[in-house]
Design a protein that fits this description.
411 residues, 8-stranded mixed beta sheet, 2 domains, Rossmann fold, alpha/beta, 14 helices, binds cytidine-5'-triphosphate, 5-stranded parallel beta sheet, 24% strand
Length: 411
């Protein structure tokens, strides 16, 4: 299809696509398709009159989500508009009728779309569509001026051209491709990693003792998966080497599943190539086990009888290789860019800087063990030789901040 975005520029983003009642609503179905193709999750929202113009089934079928239209929707744990605002990275109202413009200018909240626009934390983009005389009317122009002065919504269009009845003038909704481009811009989506190969490790490694028992750790993999998703969204080819996690693979990412540290090492070697020439960056977000059991029992081991000999059990462990330090030691020059992670309970920046030198890497993301296990938000410090940047944000935002640094080093 012409105009289809080819990159997953919006991977991992959730967009509330709100339709109000105008003929141009049929074009918003195609806008939904563009957003979905770019990897976004699209939540359709409609006013009562929008459903006179396009079928709810069309949008719910395309977006694989029910259309929301009711302020009083009881399927939300809480208020629908507030819950929707929480999950939206961007709200777009396309088409925006003259009536919706007036309601937005007044700050009304008398349906789900208007209330969502009022409570949104994210950028709100509106694409007006109406007869040219409605657009030119002083009342509409006053509303537009109010919205511009408030600075809380961004307008895309309207444009010159034929409107529904064939008359030509300023009032036609911008084409879906133009609205799509405005959405990409409003979200600050970048393609600065196009043509680059980014290797990311994520999750725990687990070291098997026997067929039913293992030594593991509490890493969920969320940080590494967020880095993989964000790098793909910025145009990189991404290899994600993952220990056992419950997370689903971000779209467009090549995933290699491993269990142990030694398996992870083989996967890293394969992804980087013998002279590290196949990757532009390695982000080691995995919590690699420092030790593995000295022996693996092929049959399930039986516990000894209780009593003196059976009350204490020692397991002999062997040191695992440090995978990141191994790559750091082999690297000459700045390729691939190397990023390590450090979880500490104290002296975060000092320890991070020590890791930076010991492992010969470019950046270390330090994380206090009190934060960050399993949550979607994190508090980290991004440390390099010269600076230590504290950051409190979602894992996706931290991933993007990290990728800004990596892209800078690759430029
Ligand atoms: N790492 C690695 N190979 C290992 C262990 C860790 O590549 N065998 C990587 C991790 O992926 C992470 C960083 O090194 O990027 C973490 O460093 P590490 O020395 O494991 O941190 P801690 O275990 O927290 O260090 P220490 O035991 O010194 O506190």
């Amino acid at each position: 299809m012409p105009g289809m975005p080819d990159a997953l520029a919006l991977a991992g983003r959730t967009i509330s696509l709100c339709l109000t009642g105008g003929i141009a609503a049929y074009k918003s179905v195609y806008l939904a398709r563009l957003l979905l193709t770019a990897g976004a999750a699209v939540q359709p929202v409609m006013t009562a009159s929008a459903s006179r113009f396009v079928g709810k089934v069309t949008l719910s079928g395309l977006c694989a989500r029910p259309v929301l239209e009711d302020m009083w929707d009881s399927s939300f744990a809480g208020e629908a508009h507030v819950a929707l605002a929480e999950q939206s990275d961007l709200v777009v109202i396309a088409p925006t009728t003259a009536d919706m413009l007036a309601r937005l200018a007044q700050g009304r909240a008398d349906d789900l779309v208007a209330a969502l626009a009022l409570v949104a934390k994210s950028p709100v983009l509106i694409a007006p569509a109406m007869h040219p005389r409605m657009w030119a009317h002083p009342a509409t122009q006053r509303n537009v001026a109010t919205l511009r002065a408030d600075g809380r919504v961004r307008l895309v269009g309207p444009v010159e051209g034929p409107v529904a009845n064939g008359e030509v003038g300023l009032g036609r909704m911008s084409e879906p491709e133009a609205i799509f481009a405005a959405i990409v811009e409003a979200l600050g989506a970048r393609t600065d990693l196009a043509g680059k190969h980014v290797v990311v490790t994520a999750g725990p490694t687990v070291e098997d003792l026997d067929p039913v028992r293992f030594l593991g750790n509490r890493s969920t993999g969320k940080m590494g998966f967020a880095v993989a998703e964000a790098a793909r969204a910025r145009g990189a080819r991404v290899t994600l080497i993952a220990g056992p996690t419950a997370l689903s693979t971000p779209r467009g990412v090549d995933r290699v599943d491993v269990r142990s540290a030694l398996e992870m090492q083989s996967a890293i070697d394969a992804a980087l190539g013998p002279a590290l020439e196949r990757a532009d960056a390695l982000v080691m977000a995995a919590a690699v086990a420092d030790y593995r059991p000295a022996t693996y029992e092929p049959e399930k081991t039986k516990k000894p009888k209780a009593g003196k000999a059976g009350d204490v059990l020692s397991i002999e462990l062997l040191r695992n290789p440090d995978l990141l330090a191994g790559v750091g030691a082999r690297r000459s020059g700045g390729r691939p860019v190397l990023v390590g992670f450090a979880v500490e309970t104290r002296d975060l920046v000092d320890y991070a800087r020590r890791k930076l030198r010991d492992k010969r890497v470019d950046l270390v993301v330090g994380n206090l063990a009190t934060h960050g296990f399993g949550g979607d938000d994190d508090e980290v410090v991004i440390v390099d030789e010269a600076s230590a940047e504290p950051l409190r944000a979602s894992k996706r935002q931290i991933a993007d901040a990290l990728l800004d640094r990596i892209a800078g080093r690759l430029a």
